[in-house]
Design brief:
The complex is a heterodimer. An eight-stranded mixed sheet of chain A has the order 3-2-1-4-7-6-8-5, with helices on both faces. The two termini of chain A are 45 Å apart. Chain A contains 14 helices and eight strands. Chain A is an alpha/beta fold. Chain A folds into two domains: 124 residues, no CATH class; 217 residues, Spore Coat Polysaccharide Biosynthesis Protein SpsA, Chain A (Alpha-Beta Complex). By secondary structure, chain B is α+β, with helices and mostly antiparallel strands. Chain B has six helices and four strands. In chain B, strands 2-1-3-4 form a four-stranded mixed sheet, sandwiched between helices. Chain B starts with a helix and ends with a helix. The chains are: A alpha/beta, B alpha+beta. Chains A and B meet through helix 1, helix 10 and helix 11 of A and helix 1, helix 2 and helix 4 of B.
Chain lengths: 410, 213
């Protein structure tokens, strides 16, 4: 057996393992997916909204937070040296909402803005809400109940897209956000929620202060803070019923920029916490290897597919041009090969299981009629699985390149 | 609870993976059996042809043509099947020797068409020589083109006998013929043992070349 075949089988095994684990966790926890604990204590909460040039969306974000049904929340907007009218817009709102405060500071990045706000936070918990995100009315309440667990340090929410109807790219991201949220909840059942997202997450103030706050050097402070908390033995969790909507990039350029930044943040975290790998806790023995494998399988799978089929496909394409110009039929009945390599059957099995499972997931989320009702939405799912996921490793290559060349620009 | 999930997942994954692996191995051995059958048939046909060669002086052209073309056709289609299987083969590497048998049979057919010129005067004999072992990207590109070109020619012209042969499977008789005809390895098409084509050629130019005879 060739090395490349051996490698392919290895990747297939990892793929089957992860898919099986998610299906198994879904079956075992199907009644608990949307459940959340009711808080036994009244935790005080400060909501921090870091903002940079968000004059268009900040009003709506603040209004969504103000309208939350959680009692007595304090709101801190950190204007991170915006060059637009963000500061003026928030100042105006401060007159209207007494629990809203504005901190103006020179531009120094999101993590530093959060630390700046954190210094003034006296409440039990604090939430981080991105300035282009809009929490649902009851989300903070649903998230707060998890903190009855005395080791709970951070709880994250279920992010949905506000602008999913913009174009095909945002529709694909809408599918992806749902699947990401679902899989994050499944990881919650094995105590492995490894990202507390930027749109809405709730943290225990004294735990975050104890570990020194957010790392300003990290390009994705949400991954970093979660890993840091896990490293210190604190728990993290996820509530699938606490919703927040956010605005996703609707152009390829902005999307590519955002995703390479996420990728870079992931790689940065892997290197920062490499000494934790294989430690005898879930963070070291599962979370870090899981993230490493996710990146590895994606990149290696892409390279293998390219090596296996890239050559043949490019030859067929060039030949199609040559044959057409020479007036020869492109599809020669004798030469059509309908005998796929046996190894592809495993891949086909994996693809079919994924389609069935992802369809199930979409029907289980609250947007089920929205997401799966029409053929076009099902087409989006198929496109997401077979095209989007297949070419997504390009983003990883770019992130790796940025990491190697030290390009940490936002 | 957490550990249990990992172990349960491992057991189920191993079951799925090994079932898939053994199923794949089973399907491939079924294919190998099919190829083995083809191989036996090729052996018999080649021996049969060798026996007939000794009698060719006593046979009329009609019979010689019919036997040779019949075998050339059978070999052509069997070899196409064989190559499809080879491209799909993953778990084992049993087909190389069978491929050599076909190359030998096709070499014999080529030799017959040359020895019995009188019977094949109205026929165009196109020998397509290709690299079997690790062709470069450029060679594979060219070979794909020639395979399509010659296949179309064979389908549209009843008086064309197409003999594709891999020149690098270590068949000594083929090496001898290539030496005698002074054919270099870069050559892709040998037309009626007179014209040698090594560069990409359009269908029109190839037809012109054939019709100059």
């Amino acid at each position: 057996m060739e090395f490349i075949t051996f490698l392919f089988l290895g990747l297939m095994f990892v793929g089957i393992y992860v898919t099986t684990m998610f299906i198994l966790l879904t079956i075992q926890n199907r009644d608990k997916m949307f459940k959340y604990p009711t808080p036994n204590e009244n935790y005080t909460i400060t909501v921090i909204i870091p903002a940079y040039n968000e004059e268009k969306s900040i009003t709506s974000t603040i209004k969504h937070v103000v309208n939350s049904n959680y009692p007595d929340i304090k709101i801190l907007v950190v204007n991170d040296g915006s060059t637009d009218n963000t500061s003026a817009v928030v100042k105006k709102l401060c007159k209207k909402y007494k629990n809203l405060k504005l901190i103006n500071k020179p531009n120094s990045g999101k993590a530093d803005s959060l630390n700046c706000a954190l210094r003034g936070v006296k409440t039990d918990l604090f939430a981080v809400v991105d300035s282009d995100s809009f929490p649902a009315k009851n989300s903070l309440k649903k998230l707060s109940g998890y903190f009855d667990d005395k080791k709970m340090s951070a709880v994250t929410s279920f992010v949905k897209l506000r602008n999913r109807r913009d174009n095909f790219l945002t529709k694909l991201q809408a599918v992806e956000y749902i699947l990401m949220g679902w899989s994050r909840k499944l990881l919650d059942f094995i105590d492995s929620v490894y990202v507390t997202n930027g749109p809405l997450s709730l943290y225990r103030t004294n735990f975050v202060k104890k570990i020194g706050g957010f790392d300003p050097k990290s390009i994705t402070e949400d991954i970093d803070i979660t890993w840091d908390l896990m490293k210190h033995g604190y728990n993290t969790s996820m509530c699938l019923d606490a919703n927040v909507t956010t605005v996703a990039p609707n152009t390829l350029g902005a999307f590519y920029q955002q995703r390479t930044r996420w990728g870079l943040g992931g790689i940065q975290a892997l290197f920062k916490y490499k000494s934790e790998i294989l430690r005898r806790n879930l963070f070291g023995s599962f979370v870090i290897p899981f993230v490493m494998l996710s990146i590895g399988v994606s990149v290696l799978g892409f390279i293998l597919l390219f090596l296996t089929f890239g050559r043949e496909i490019s030859i067929k394409l060039i030949n199609a041009g040559l044959l057409t110009s020479s007036n020869i039929g492109i599809f020669q009945k004798d030469l059509v090969n309908l005998t796929p390599p046996v190894i592809l059957y495993l891949l086909v099995f994996l693809a079919i299981s994924s389609v069935i499972y992802f369809t199930y997931v979409l029907t289980q989320t609250k947007d089920r009629f929205e997401q799966i009702r029409s053929f076009s939405n099902f087409f989006n799912l198929l496109f997401y699985i077979f095209v989007y996921l297949a070419i997504y490793p390009i983003v990883w290559f770019s992130s790796i390149f940025r990491f190697v060349t030290g390009n940490y620009k936002w | 609870m957490v550990k249990t999930v990992f172990i349960q997942t491992l057991i189920i994954s191993l079951f799925i993976f090994s079932t898939g692996f053994y199923l794949g191995d089973y399907i491939e051995s079924q294919r190998a059996d099919y190829i083995q059958d083809l191989s036996f048939r090729a052996d018999t046909n080649r021996l049969d042809l060798n026996t007939q060669i000794s009698m060719f002086d006593k046979l009329d052209c009609e019979t010689i043509r019919s036997e040779t073309i019949g075998l050339a056709d059978d070999t052509y289609f069997d070899a196409i099947d064989l190559e499809k299987m080879e491209k799909s083969e993953v778990y084992s590497d049993k087909l190389y020797e069978i491929h050599r048998k076909y190359d030998l049979t096709r070499t014999i057919i080529w030799k017959i068409t040359d020895d019995q010129k009188r019977c094949f005067e109205d026929y165009n004999i196109i020998v397509y020589l290709y690299q079997y072992l690790d062709p470069s990207y450029e060679s594979e590109l060219k070979q794909n083109y020639f395979a399509a070109l010659t296949s179309e020619l064979r389908r549209n012209n009843n008086n064309t006998i197409l003999i594709p042969i891999a020149y690098d499977t270590d068949i000594n008789s083929l090496k001898l013929i290539m030496n005698i005809l002074e054919i270099e390895e870069e050559t892709q098409l040998v037309i009626n043992n007179k014209h040698f084509v090594s560069e990409l050629i359009s269908k029109k130019d190839l037809l012109n070349l054939i019709n100059t005879d």
